[in-house]
């Protein structure tokens, strides 16, 4: 083939027989009323004969990740936090072809978010059986880390529920806490048959950041500021403002 031909030829297929797996596309876990297990999986990869689910602590060091499962198809079994190694914060899937060529997706944060309920904001009757409702959604962060800047979108609904405004945003969801969405979503419900709004399935659609619980200033590391706050709390002294910490650090450097 050529650069413009749209296909590739093998240089020497008898000596270099790899068929190159298709790039991996991860599927964000569903967010529902059920907390665990969480399914960490991906789309089918062309030419792949093996799928390895990997978890680790550093998105840039996949070579250090722990192998959770190795299957001939994308994973179909959910996983709980108790099955994860300590410190696991990211996950990815690495695929291989029959000759051992591999490729993996960029790791994404490992989150355990649960929909714990809805707060009704307003409702409007359209007909005898059809209504529109506006809700805020409450989620609980079952992860071991705070998460920020989360956007969720309706992935699927029962047949008699139509999502009109299908996204909600969370500025911050601390580890172990429940938080209501910053904004609302709107659904139209046909109540001529039984309906349960808890059957709506959500997915995270925008990037998120995770921070260790001890990372008070959200720098993705435990630094001088965090240690200074812990020291002052231990001594019973009020925690400093970050500007004061910077001033102290400069004085230390200056001698």
What does this molecule look like?
The chain has 255 residues and is mainly beta. The protein folds into 3 domains: 26-109, Immunoglobulin-like (Sandwich), CATH 2.60.40; 113-211, Immunoglobulin-like, CATH 2.60.40; 224-254, no CATH class. The chain is built from 2 helices and 17 strands. The chain has helices at 224-235, 242-254; strands spanning 26-27, 30-31, 41-42, 50-56, 66-71, 90-96, 102-104, 108-109, 113-125, 130-141, 146-156, 161-165, 167-173, 178-180, 185-190, 201-204, 209-211. The chain starts with 25 loop residues before the first strand and ends with a helix. 21% of the residues are buried.
Structural descriptors:
Immunoglobulin-like; 2 helices; mainly beta; 37% strand; 255 residues; 5-stranded antiparallel beta sheet; disordered C terminus; globular
Unreliable runs: 239-255
Give me the Rg, rounded.
24 Å
Secondary structural class:
mainly beta
- Could you describe the largest sheet, including whether it forms a barrel? 5 strands, antiparallel
- Principal-axis shape equals globular
What is this structure, in a nutshell?
With 255 residues, this protein is mainly beta.
């Amino acid at each position: 083939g050529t650069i413009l031909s749209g296909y590739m030829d093998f240089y020497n297929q008898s000596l270099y027989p790899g068929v190159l797996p298709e790039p991996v596309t991860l599927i964000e876990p569903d967010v529902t009323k059920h907390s665990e297990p969480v399914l960490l999986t991906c789309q089918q990869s062309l030419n792949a004969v093996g799928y390895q689910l990997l978890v680790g602590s550093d998105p840039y060091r996949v070579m250090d990740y722990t192998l959770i499962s190795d299957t001939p198809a994308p994973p179909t079994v959910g996983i709980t936090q108790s099955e994860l190694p300590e410190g696991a914060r990211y996950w990815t899937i690495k695929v291989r072809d029959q000759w051992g060529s591999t490729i993996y997706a960029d790791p994404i944060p490992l989150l355990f978010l649960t929909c714990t309920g809805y707060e009704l904001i307003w409702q409007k009757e359209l007909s005898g059986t059809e209504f529109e409702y506006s809700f805020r959604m409450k989620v609980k962060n079952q992860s071991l880390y705070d998460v920020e800047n989360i956007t969720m979108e309706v992935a699927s609904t029962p047949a008699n529920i139509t999502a009109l405004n299908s996204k909600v945003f969370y500025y911050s969801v601390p580890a172990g806490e429940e938080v209501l969405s910053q904004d609302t979503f709107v659904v139209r419900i046909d109540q001529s048959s039984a309906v349960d709004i808890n059957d709506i399935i959500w997915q995270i659609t925008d990037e998120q950041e995770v921070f260790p619980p001890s990372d008070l200033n959200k720098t993705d590391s435990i630094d001088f500021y965090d240690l200074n706050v812990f020291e002052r709390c231990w001594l019973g002294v009020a925690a400093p403002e970050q500007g004061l910490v910077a001033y102290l650090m400069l004085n230390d450097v200056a001698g």
